[in-house]
Write a structure and sequence with these properties.
This protein is an alpha/beta fold. A five-stranded mixed β-sheet has the order 3-2-1-4-5, with helices on both faces. A four-stranded mixed β-sheet has the order 8-7-6-9. A four-stranded mixed β-sheet has the order 12-13-14-15. The termini are far apart.
Length: 543
């Protein structure tokens, strides 16, 4: 049976889990190992990974590598979360782990962390027919996901974590003082302030907490049902623990030393969240990031992974982001439809894959989102918003690619002088150029935002690509725009672009090369200009 492994390098500890699978629903655990390496020590205050912590982490990865080799693991994924995301020397850690342990460590952002945790929870907890709030609390961050019937509606990562709170506001090894508690609570209110109104308006049928601290709290303040936390009991527990030092907490409650200090900040977060959403019980299913990784690895191995659902979830997150910036949703939907249609019909030419189609889809949805800031340079603002927003299902590199694709839907074509494009490797740049070329055409075919173009027939020839366009009404402005924006397409695919228009049974040809462009130099009049011209002609005749 194939064996799989997941590695979660967190801010408070590193975890390995190895399983073997006969099928997606027939899985047996082989090994589970936790090594208390506090990688987040100091990083949230200094911005750098502590040298001693890096050494311990590399040593832990060597041990994990040995365990995976002994277990004959076939596929694995290793991720590091908030501690490495924020560290200026994180590349040093990733390079050393790869060089000395042979493990490729992937630094993931909050949205990817939330996606994997959501996957683990939806496989372990019955969420059907329920509105649920997922809270994944780690050492450096808190990921919040609003779910309606297993579909994510909203997700965000907040800089609230147990190690972060411990080192910023509390004294390690000591009880909590009154002024420390006040500062910590003020920080929680400030950091949660932007999301509190959204959360407070909802009525959640289920509140789920994941992470080692929630699992520990469920044992110390259990609810009526297994694997649940009674919020009232948890509040009473916090009242007792704040007056103890970590050593006394460990002795009285059987806690590990690396849990006894961070469980108090975790309880403060729990109380703040429970109060906000009026929760009396929190489910602690005992699953998290490493289980989500395993579910995905196994499903993909056995070819049962639901790519469409995951892609649709990311597209839904993109639409929610677009609505936040009041984008033209009808135009975005039309350009997305045209872009994906062109992608599908041009498969023999571009030779890109399903993941590339997904990136094009997200870029098409968000290509005009920068209008919210300024129309003239909206393509650049779109790029900035995309790169700096967390879109569930997209990694940080994928966000850079999507941002570039969206940016190049108009004006300048990709060049190595552009900062984000320069950050991509040669293969990624080629993919961006091809996808941006397709997006430019799709956007041009909806120039007036009136959804005139209905469909395409495509012929890919040795020296040219012929697009037979079916539409409704006058699409002269669209053709003029296509002629102006076809340069990237022709450069990326090394073929001339030729358009054949079929409208109301009549067929006309348009070519984007020099002759066609010379005919199209005078921009056709828009509907408004044509009406004004007609009125002017009428007044002249009357005179």
């Amino acid at each position: 049976m194939p064996r799989f492994a997941s590695i979660d390098v967190g801010s408070n500890a590193s975890r390995l889990r190895i399983v073997e699978a006969l099928g997606p629903d027939d899985v047996r655990e082989i090994k589970s190992l936790r090594i208390p390496v506090r990688l987040g020590h100091g990083v949230f205050l200094t911005g750098k990974l502590d040298h001693s912590s890096v050494e311990k982490c590399v040593e832990a990865m060597r041990r994990f590598a040995d365990e995976m080799e002994d277990a004959e693991v076939e596929r694995y994924r290793a991720v590091v979360t908030a501690s490495a995301r924020e560290a200026s020397n994180s590349r040093e850690l990733l390079a050393r782990v790869r060089r000395e342990a042979g493990i490729t460590l992937d630094s993931i952002d909050g949205s990817e962390e939330a996606r994997l945790v959501r996957l683990a929870v939806t496989r372990s907890v019955n969420l059907k027919g329920k509105r649920a709030l997922l809270m994944d609390l780690g050492g450096g961050s808190l990921e919040l996901t609003d779910i309606d019937r297993t579909q994510p509606l909203f997700s965000t990562s907040v800089e609230i974590g147990t190690v972060r709170l411990l080192e910023a506001f509390l004294t390690p090894g000591k009880p909590v003082k009154g002024d420390q508690e006040k500062l910590l609570l003020e920080y929680l209110e400030r950091m949660l302030g932007p999301v509190m109104p959204h959360l407070a308006r909802k009525r959640y049928g289920l509140v789920v907490g994941t992470g080692g601290n929630f699992d520990a709290i469920a044992q110390l303040a259990p609810g009526a049902l297994p694997k649940t936390i009674d919020v009232r009991r948890a509040r009473n527990l916090l009242t007792k623990l704040v007056h103890m030092n970590p050593q006394k907490r460990a002795a009285l409650y059987g806690l590990r030393s690396d849990r006894a200090d961070v469980i108090v900040p975790a309880l403060y977060v729990l109380m703040q969240m429970a109060t906000t959403v009026r929760a009396k019980t929190v489910v602690a299913p005992g699953v998290g990031l490493k289980e989500g990784i395993l579910f995905e690895l196994i499903d993909k191995h056995f070819s049962v992974w639901d790519y469409r659902t995951e892609d649709d979830a990311a597209a839904g997150a993109a639409v929610q982001l677009g609505r936040r910036y009041h984008f033209d949703e009808a135009h975005a939907a039309q350009v997305t439809r045209l872009a994906t249609t062109l992608f599908d019909r041009l498969q023999v030419l571009h030779k890109l894959n399903r993941q590339d189609r997904h990136l094009l889809r997200i870029a098409a949805l968000l290509h005009d989102i920068g209008d919210f800031i300024h129309f003239a340079s909206h393509h650049k603002h779109s790029q900035y918003i995309i790169e700096h927003s967390e879109i569930m299902g997209l990694s940080s590199v994928q966000r850079v690619m999507v941002g570039c694709i969206a940016r190049y839907h108009r004006r300048a074509i990709p060049t190595a002088e552009h900062t984000s494009y320069k950050r991509l490797d040669p293969v990624q740049r080629t993919r961006v150029r091809k996808l941006a070329a397709i997006l430019r055409l799709a956007d041009a075919f909806d120039r007036e935002h009136l959804r005139k173009v209905r469909d395409f027939d495509v012929r890919v020839l040795k020296d040219k690509v012929v697009l037979r366009v079916r539409g409704a009404g006058d699409i002269a402005l669209e053709l003029w725009t296509v002629a102006r924006k076809a340069n990237l397409f022709e450069a990326a695919f090394r073929r001339r672009l030729e358009i054949e228009v079929v409208s109301n049974g009549a067929k006309a040809k348009s070519r984007t090369k020099s002759k066609a462009k010379s005919k199209a130099r005078s921009k056709p009049k828009s509907k408004l200009k044509r009406k004004r011209a007609a009125k002017k002609a009428t007044r002249s005749r009357k005179k």
